[in-house]
Write a structure and sequence with these properties.
This protein is 78% helix and 0% strand. By secondary structure, it is mainly α. It has one domain (11-424). α8 packs parallel to α20 and α14 (262-295) packs across α17 (333-350).
């Protein structure tokens, strides 16, 4: 049965069928094999229960908050501040690109949103300054992977809800890995920029210039402070934080920046509905698929198979990383998380990996897949906004993928990088 599930699943994926439909069709095949049409009566309940989770309400709200802050003119302010801070280094705009992603990550929690918002501004701007357009698009796609790791994070909300792991704890665990991703990307972009002779700002920004940029971006930067401070301080839950983020974004957009209109609100609500609807359909069909896998004891079988090969947890973690990186190349992070989470999380627990540590490692691996060929969503987004070909951006993105893999390995084998902050804040 397990072999049939895998073969049918990948056969339909290769035929180009959307993931949500693949999960539904494969589930139908399995049910027909198990007990016939009588089991179909369970489908509606499982379909609904898969998304009937209070923490999942945070996802559309965080999407809406990101839309609001982007429309309110956040992008220009964040980019300007980042440029003032790091523009004087070799490849200054490449560093500003990464730093802007790190700052923007605290607002959207979405890699695709980051790549679309920042890419629209930075890719043409970097080309005008002398950077190759493919390089600009590649660093934008790679740096946008930081978005789902530095909290708030949509993928961590989903992992916490489905794996019964503290979402606030996952947010705390993602802070240091997210910063680490930014550092390694900056190191690689510095070496490439210096080798190719990419420009840097003629003079280092003065304290007054940095202060002015910071003041201009202050209300934008306060949003992640409010969200994280409230969640990590135990004042409100991640779902409540998402609602507060929307309220804060509305106040900033209408009364401080004053560039939001009712027409914008309707457009953003439509965008939020489309993005959330797609995700929820995937989650619903994935819920049925995961229930059938659990019924067939697939997680236990895989766990036993791996442990029969080796009980070395470091080797097992390496195999899991390789699997997740490969899956991330061909599947979006949300369905991959929902399908593989129930399979791999019990295995990680058996070999003594803390749930917060493993959750962060899994989210990090799958997020990198958003910037890897052939199906990385961030790559396609940057191709569209940057007007470059997939072949061109793919050639430039590989050094940055290597940088992100280095970050993954460091996070995997140095648990303190993920667990120190949660332990300090009392989540362990």
């Amino acid at each position: 049965m397990s072999l049939m599930m895998v073969l049918v699943f990948f056969a339909f994926l290769l035929l180009g069928m959307p993931v949500a439909y693949v999960l539904g069709v494969v589930s139908i095949f399995i049910v027909l094999d198990l007990g016939g049409p009588s089991l179909f009566s369970i489908f509606p309940m499982r379909f609904f229960n898969s998304i009937n989770l209070f923490p999942l309400m945070a996802m559309p709200l965080f999407i809406l908050a990101g839309e609001l802050m982007n429309t309110a003119g956040l992008t220009n302010r964040v980019i300007n501040l980042a440029t003032k801070l790091v523009g004087h280094f070799w490849g200054g705009l490449a560093h500003a690109n990464v730093l802007a992603s790190m700052l923007f990550a605290g607002l959207t929690g979405s890699a695709v949103a980051d790549s679309a918002a920042l890419g629209t501004m930075l890719i043409p701007g970097m080309e005008k300054k002398g950077y190759h357009r493919n390089f600009a698009a590649a660093i934008t796609a790679a740096s946008s992977c930081i978005g789902p790791i530095i909290p708030p994070s949509i993928i961590m909300v989903l992992y916490g809800a489905y794996m019964q792991v503290s979402i606030a704890g996952l947010f705390a665990a993602g802070i240091v890995p997210g910063l680490l991703m930014g550092v390694v990307l900056m190191v690689f972009s510095h070496r490439i920029s210096k080798k190719r002779g990419y420009p840097k700002e003629e003079h280092r920004a003065t304290f007054k210039e940095v202060s002015t940029s910071f003041k201009d971006a202050f209300f934008s930067l306060m949003m992640p402070v409010i969200i994280l401070g409230g969640i990590l301080g135990g004042i409100f839950t991640p779902t409540e934080a998402a609602a507060i983020a929307v309220l804060y974004a509305l106040v900033v957009g209408f009364f401080i920046y004053r560039n939001l209109t009712l027409r914008h609100i309707w457009e953003m609500l439509c965008n939020m509905t489309r993005a959330s609807g797609v995700a929820f359909i995937v989650l619903s069909t994935a819920g049925i698929f995961v229930w059938l896998m659990t019924t067939e004891q697939v997680p236990q079988a895989i766990s036993s198979l791996v442990l029969s090969m080796t009980d070395n947890k470091y080797l097992i973690l390496l195999l899991i990383n390789i699997l997740l990186l490969i899956i991330g190349c061909f599947m979006d992070s949300i369905p991959a998380l929902i399908i593989l989470g129930p399979v791999l999380a019990p295995l990680a627990t058996k070999i003594g990996i803390h749930p917060l540590h493993f959750g962060t490692v899994m989210c990090l691996n799958l997020t990198i897949g958003l910037a890897t060929p052939p199906l990385g969503a961030c790559l396609f987004t940057c191709c569209a906004v940057g007007k470059v070909t997939l072949e061109g951006i793919s050639k430039e993105v590989w050094p940055f993928i290597v940088a992100l893999i280095i970050a993954v390995l460091l996070v995997t084998y140095i648990p303190a990088l993920t667990l120190t902050v949660p332990k300090f804040l009392g989540f362990m």
